[in-house]
Every structure is written in C-alpha cells, then in structure tokens.
Protein 1
Amino acid sequence: MDKHLHIISLNVPYPADYGGVYDLFYKLPALHSQGVKIYLHCFDSGRGEQPELNKYCEKVFYYKRNTGTKGISFRLPYIVSSRRNNVLLENLLRDDYPILMEGVHCTYPVLDKRFDNRKKFLRIHNTEHFYYHHLFRSTNNLAKKLFFLRESKLLKKYERELVRHVTACWGVSKKDVSYYRNEMHCQHADYLPLFLPAWQIQFKESAGTYCLYHGDLSVPSNERAATWLLDHVFNQIKIPFVIAGKNPSAALEKRVHRNAHTCLIINPSENEMQDMIAKAHIH
C-alpha cells in the first residue's frame, strides 16, 4: 500500500547551509528511502526553486511568503500569518493524505474547519514563545525588541490553542517535549531526534592554527555569543579567532576588525565551512 505525506516547510529546505534547515532537508531522503511519497510545500523567502528536492518528492510546490505589512495580523503571530496562502489550502484539500507541518510557522491550515478530520502532525522546532522572548532579550534594536516581545506574547497564546487541533507533536528536544506535555497539557507530544547527514569528521592530525565560532549571524542571540567571545575571551588572549556565518551585522563586522588576530568570514560556502572546521584547533 502506498504511503503518501504532505509536508509544509517554513522555508525552501535546500541547500542545507544553516542549522535550522538540516532537519527540514535530511528528513526528505530518510522518508523517501522508506517508500513515502512526499508532496512538499515550501514557503520561499528568496532561496528559489531547488531541483535537488525533486529527487525525493513526488511534487514540490513553492509559495511566496507575505512579508512586511502584508503578513501582519492582530490575532496571529507573524510567523504564522505571513504564511497564510489559499493556494496551499486548495492543494492540500485535493486529497486526504496526512499533513506534517514543519514548525508552528506552518500551522495556518489547522485554523480552517475543512481540515478538522485530517491527520495533522506538528514538528516542534522550538518552544517558539520562549525563543522569541530570548530574541527580545538579545537585541538592542528598539523596533526589533518591540516586535519580538509582541510575537512572544502572541505565540504563547497561539501555541496553547494549537495543541488542541493537531493529531500529534514531535519535538526535536526532550526539553521541548516535556514543556508541551506538562505546561501545555499536550499528551500526544513525543521526542523525535533530528534528521542529520551521515557526517564524517575531517580534521588535521597536527594542532590547528585558530579558534572557530560559526552560526547564522543574522540571529541576535548568535551575534551576542560571538560578541561575548570577542569582548571576554579574545581581547585577553591573542590566539587567532575566526567567526564565520550568514549575514552578520555591520556592528559585528566593525567589532571584529578592532583586533588584528580576529577575522570574520561572511556567508562561506559549504566547502569553505568544512575546510575551516578541519583546520580549527578549537571549534
């Protein structure tokens, strides 16, 4: 008997070039290898169509996210309201296959009564209202602080209501699962580890030449961690320090260049990143 599954992805899950997209992408070949026929629905935030996804999916749909004022709702969190899409709903209603929603971001269909009797599964990437509260605390930009605080409050209310409308929740961490069970009274929450590639660690036999920190530097908490290392560690020891990652701010770039022994690698390729990891002494 054929196994069919709709997956709604909060972003185009390829290339796997930042932490949050690994589970989104590597779940596809894992399910495909088990004979699951995948219908992938992606919200494209500028990554574009990716032919690689066709290897694992029966069909791939791309939808434009409603960013800016078009995505604002007084009732819904922005990460949900900006992914409202009637074409997506119509595509999902063409059959009665189960739906896997990748993150709270992709749960707008549960608000539609036409999906009341469908099997709907939620992948919990974070306890989102906690995550946005940490973003609120991590940034010094007033406009962003107000946005993150509002989003955190809306998400707390939304997540509590959401668990009543899904068939099951699968968390990437045991801590999130425990919170959903004990604080949100979601008894159908279970732990499902991250889907990851079959990594092989590449390293040099001799000592490395520098320390390395990398991450998505557009995330305020990651930038804050990099800045802390610059201010509290590498201003006291003169060991070469490399920061690498996506879309750093001008403020971080300026801060890095104050020291001759610290440098910033902006938007490295996968090959560049692996080479830096292999040559680092401390990662």
Protein 2
Amino acid sequence: MLTQQMFSQNGGFGLRYEILRKFATRGGEYPARLNVYQIYDAERAERDTSYREKATRFAEVLRDYEYKVIEKPLTNKEDTEGDPLVHSAVDVDMAVDILEQAKELDKVVLLTNKASFSRLVETVQQKGSRVEIVGFDSISSKLKRKADMYISGYMIPGLLPIESPYEWGEVGSRVRGVCYDFSHNDGYGFLRYLVAINEHLWITDSRFEGSPFKTVFAHISQFEENFNTSFLPSRELIFEFDLSDSDKGLVAENISLVSAP
C-alpha cells in the first residue's frame, strides 16, 4: 500500500509497479490486496489537460498489474497567514484500511516514510501479521526498527531502473548496494548488492548457499570525489556503481552515493 505522490517526492520517482508486485509476492505468494492511494487534484485537472491525462494513464497502467487505485481528493485551504495549505486524509484512510484488512493477511508490505506509522506497524504485528517496509529517502530510524524487515527501494533490482545497456547484476551493469565492510588502514572494502528477488533475503552473506546477494570489492579510489569514507562501513548509505571484472573477481567502479539518512 502506498501513496504515489509521496514516493515521487521522496526518491521513488519512476518506480516500476510490476517489480514492486514481484517483490511483495516473492516465494510464490499471492496478493490478497494491492492498494495504491493516488492523491488527485480535481481543480487542477479541470484546467490542466496534461495533468489529467497523466493521472489517468497512471491509474490505467496500475490496473493492468491488478492494483486497486484508490483516488483521494485534495482539499485546498489557507493557513493563518493566508498561504495555501494542502490537506488530505490519505494517511488516515491508509491506516484504517490496513488495520481492517490485516485481520485476513499474513503479511503487509507497506511503502511509506511516515514515522507516525510506527504505532500502526506495531498494531498490525499484534494482530499476527508480518510487516515489511520499503522506502527510499527520508525514512525514520524508528519506523525501520519497528518493521519485521526494512529494505531500501534503491536496492531492489529494477524497481527504480538504471540507465545501462546491461541487465542488473551482469558484468558491465550499474547496480546499487551498501558498503558493509571497509578497512580504513588498507583503503578498501566490500559492497553488497541484491541480484534476485526471492524468499531468502535474510541470507545476506553471499558466501552462503541460497543467498540472493553478491559481494564486490571496492577500492577507496573509486568513490566519488569529496566523499567522506569515515562514514564507512554503513548499511544506511546506498551507493550506485559499475560492475567490472578482474583477475581477482568483481570490482566496483565509479561509486557514487545516491541515498543517505
């Protein structure tokens, strides 16, 4: 369940909803509900043909993937100083729907960056449902801790496409991952990236059989200029990098930071 506008504003612009469905139903599961909450400005749609057509196409594409598009109107008001203020009850509606539907669900996959949803996550868990959080930027540490699993949407192969002539994970391709190990004395470390969407996401050590992750060598010289490597290692920082082959195995090149808390 997600709000389309919120994720466009928090790093998720261009999100591929067919990949999202694949991720949510990994391991052969079937979705009971696939809800997308679309905030819709009816007044703007009256005067802006491009906005109206774009919103319509967005909803039509999602319905092809069997999502239920729940349209929520904007209510435009002014604050005490006369400045425009946009209100929407979408967060409340999402919370109510999740609580009602959680009674029949084993797992809830929630796309949100709202720290205020931490209590909602706890309540759903108390009803016996597992809660997974997918996010991009501005995700609160409290929300991450409350979830049964948190994963950055940047890490999911194909969820946010990368411009590359190669498939994600192939030599020459550009992927995203985290630096889980780094030696400041030696000036190198290792990046971990996801190569498969399956039920074994908990096997993060790529040396173990069944792990959907791979590990790549990363030298300090390949990080973008002016990046402060004192923050490494970190599972909070998301990097984008090219996969290159060498006589010692895969190495990461052109490493750039794409998301930080």
Protein 3
Amino acid sequence: MISAPMEGSIVFLDSGVGGLPYLERSRRLLPGRELHYIADDAGFPYGTKKPSQIEDILLDRTRRLRARLHPRVLVIACNTASQAGLSALRKANPDLEIVGTVPAIKPAAASTKSGRIAVLATERTVADPYLDDLIARYASDVEVIKLPAQPLVSFVERSFLGSTASERRTAVMPYLLPLLEAGVDRIVLACTHFLHLEPDFSSACETAGAWEVEIVDSLEGVANRLHSLCSADSAPLVARATCSSPHSGRFFLTSEGPADPAYTAWAERFGLSGPEAL
C-alpha cells in the first residue's frame, strides 16, 4: 500500500537494528515528531563491505526512502556508513538535512584520567583513515587502542533478542578483557549495534572491579543535533492527538519476501509498527 507523504518526519537508517537506540533517545527531545526506522537487512552488514559498496547502497536506499517517506531529516545511524558515504549522500541530496554518527573520540579523550582510551568498532571503521583523522584531531595527547569487534554486530542482529545475561557477557568479554588489561578507562562504542550491549559492558566492568571505566557513545550528540535542527524548523510538528501512541513511528526493511520474525519483535520493543517493506 502506498502511504501519504509525511513531511516533517525524521528517518533513521542503519544496516540493521543498531540505530534503534538513537531513535529512542531522540524521542525524548522530539515528542511531537514522527520518527521512522529503516533496517537495511538487504545490505547487512556494512562493516565487511568496501567503502564504494557502502556508498552505492546508501545512495540507493536514500532514493527509495525519500520517494516513500519524504523526510525532513535523515539520520545515518551507523558509524561505518557515515564514514563511508556521508559526503556522497550530502552531495547527491543538497536539499535534505542529513545527520551522521561519529565515534565519540572527543569526549572520551577529554574525560580520560588514565590517558588511555579504546575504540570498539566494525572492521571497516577500524581500517578507515577517517577514524585516524578523528584521533589525530581530538585525541593526539592520549593513547588510543582500536579494536575491531565485527562478530558483535551479528550477535546483536541475530541473537540479542532472547539471549540471557550470561550469553551477552560471554559475547562481550573477549573484547573487554584485553582493554581492561591495557588500562583504558574510556571505551568508545563506535558501532551503533554495540549500544544494545552497553549495559552488559558496564556490568562486566563493575564485576571486574574496573569502576573507573566509562562506556562512551554518541547518543546525546545526535539527539541534541536533531533537536537543534527541529527547533529552528518551520515544518509543522505532528500533533500529539494524531499519533497512534506516544511512540508512533514505522519500521521498514529493504529486503523482499517474508520478514524475519525477529524484526517484528524489534519493532515492538521500540514502539514501532511493522515491519513493512520500503
């Protein structure tokens, strides 16, 4: 069914479910906006692809979502995608406000007491010169350990729902232990999928007695940027009375055929209707 245009909405795009925490946090600052989510399951995962492949995927998905949803703002809720394709997306869509996600190197470096921080990311993000540039600009006076944790992306996408605390602890410990042994006191989650595991990272740090370690992400930065954009926006907010629930919004997938039932559970978990095909 073809839906009516929804000018004024905000659309979050990620390779899968990683960007959902960004949508959730943004709701607190933008309660009157329609916030929609696209999980690019047809393109999942981004972290193992070449930058040119990611760029092509993003250009295609953006054309499709603009035709369907007519958003006011597009959030690329994925560090890997932001690094690989944000510049090309903005060039191809000069009339659309596009917000990317950037690894929170700056606040981590500014707050470290030990002078050592770590960045957990996908294989592509760790290898991208963009990350080295961020480190050079904002963390040149501290030691930065870069650690790829690609398997955690698939764990969150495929196994997180229904997992036990013990299973999640088992998933994060191979990445956390070497960082604790190295003496880091800030761990930057530079992949949006990892934010679903933030409580598990924090709990494991406490269990290990590493009370000084803080987990750092870009949630507040992205939400504040959206709030700033929309505060000066002349586009009308969606009236609360027209929203089907306080968490009104829709969940889309990019693949054809029957949806994985897990995505229905993810949509319900974050108060979204769907999933439906983009």
Protein 4
Amino acid sequence: MTARQRSTFPSDPGPAWAGDGAPSGASGTARATIRDVAKLAGVSLMTVSRAINTPHLVSDKTLKEIHRAIDRTGYIPNRLAGGLSGSRTGQVTVLVPSLSNLVFSDLLNGMASVLEHRGMQMMVGNYHYTQKKLEEQIPRFMGWSPDALVLVGPVPKSAQPLLRRRGIPVVETVELIDPPFDCNVGISHEAAGRAMAAHLAGLGYRRMAAVSANAGLEQRTSQRIRGFCRHLEESGFPPPTRMELQGRSSIAVGKQAMRRILETGPRPEAVFCSNDDLAFGAMMACVEAGLKVPDDMGIAGFNALDIALQCIPSITTVRVDRFRIGEIAARMLLGRLEGTTRPGEKADVGFSVVPGRSTDRESAQT
C-alpha cells in the first residue's frame, strides 16, 4: 500500500494526514506520521485521529499521552489533504470588517474559547468594511475547504448561490437578520438606538444630535442612529441634528464632528455617537471649546469600551456581550456540523444601557 493510499481512514471522518516514513530524527529530513504517534502513545491510529479531530471524545489521560507523542515526534496533521479528500479540515473561516477594532477581537476570542476545545482552528479574513472585498474573500476562502463560515452581518447576495452549493454551516453574527441565511446571533441595533434615546429623554434632555461615521459601509451604525432618531420623532421631540462624516470612526473624527455641531448651532443639549471612539472625541472637542460635560453638553456612545468606562467623566454607553456572541456562534456551527442544530436558528443576546457621568447633570451639580 502506497503512502497516498494510506493517507485517509475510511471509518474516520477526520482529515487526511501528512505522508509516511520514519519519525524525524537528528537530520530533521524525515516527516513523522500518524503511525509514529500511535506507536509511541500505545494507541490505535483511529484514537490518534479522534484526538486531533474530536478531542472531546477521547479521555484526558489518553489525550495527554497522544499530545506527548506528537511533541516528541514533531508530527503535523495535513489539514489541506483532508479537505481535498472530502473529509473535514477542522478549519472555520471567520470574516470580520476590522482586526484593529476591539469589538471584533472580543467576538473572535469568544469563538476560540469554544472551538479550540473541539480541535478546530479559525482562518480569519479582514475585509476592511468594504463590501467588494467581502464578496471577493468568500470564494477565496472557500478554496481552503473550511468546515463552516462565520460572518459579521449578512451574507452578500452575490455569495449566496456559492454557499448553497457548498452546503457548509454559515453563521451571521453581531446583528439580527430576518430571515437568516442559515443561523444567526446578535442584537437589534435599532432597538439599542431607541433605548439610548429613551434613556437621554428620561434624564431631561430634549434637543439632541446624532453623530456617525462611515455609516454607508457600516450598516449597524445606520441602524443605531435610525432607532435613536425614530424614537425621538415618535415621542414628539425636536428632530435631532444629524452629523455623518465619511471615513473610519476614530477619536479624531469624533472631535471633528463635534466641532462642526458647535459651529453650526443651535447647540444641542446632548449628543449620541454611534460608537465610543466618536463619543470620546466629541467630549474632547467640548473640553477644547470650554464646555463642561455634562453641565453644558451630555455625551453618549456605544460598545462599552474601556476608553468610555474609564475616562473622566465616564461616558454613557451601550454594552453588548460580544464574547458571548462568539461563543454562541461557535456552538451553532458545531451543532450544524453534528446535526443537532437546525437551519434558521437565531439568538438575541440583548444589550444594556450603561449610565455614565457624561449625561448625569444632577450629580455634576452636587
């Protein structure tokens, strides 16, 4: 039987393995095989395969022995060969709009906390908030035969035929999508915007403004602002001043937006920013203009980042458990792979308004 014939195990759903030969020795030229690992650990080939593909099905004691043997032999599974042979690769593709945004770092960490215990790895792509790049990346990553796909936001229409043909689990995250392409976990960003409007109104603010950036490409931003404005309109409040700047959200853009609001007048009593970076920048612009927060201007943001919670005064914001979204997304795709989760499953993780000193005028005056 040749090395190629020995590369897969018909009774095992796991991936194919790297070639045959003796364990790597002093020369470092020979590649270790799954047989070397099995022999050293004193277990069957099937048990080694399960330990790598589905470690939750193997006892802790046996896992330790196999991992020790893998370390000693230097054995490396050939995941790509498994994908080419039609079995699972243990890879999950995750496409996010930014790698520098802490929001998506939390999402990835939540997924990793579940997938790593199941012997699965993430391949992460960054489409830089650009729809065209997202549409290009989906077929490119499908070429690596991932077992599942996770997206921030909805599946682009152009990619839906390809994904239906591939038939792999797809989980859309961060926002609620109706109906989902497959499975979905997130929150209603419009409801979150409404909740912030109701919170500020309850504090006595009446004339307000709404600040966003890059809303044309970041639809969740648009949903928050839309919910905020609609609640004020339905409650009989004056229409909020809208300030939408192009480019990525940043502290600098938040300062720029606040300066424009102060220059154009009449001055609002409170400003809701679509994220905390913008809110922090808006607060800095108020300080530079000699305005006191919250006495002269209330400031609110979104995401409950440390920059908002730890600054002085702390910024009123909206908290979303992004780590939990990642955990649930990972469990959903595992359930789809194992047949325990049906297509169409959705999960709303909810949100909460976190009051800060930036809108608390009564405390500021005492």
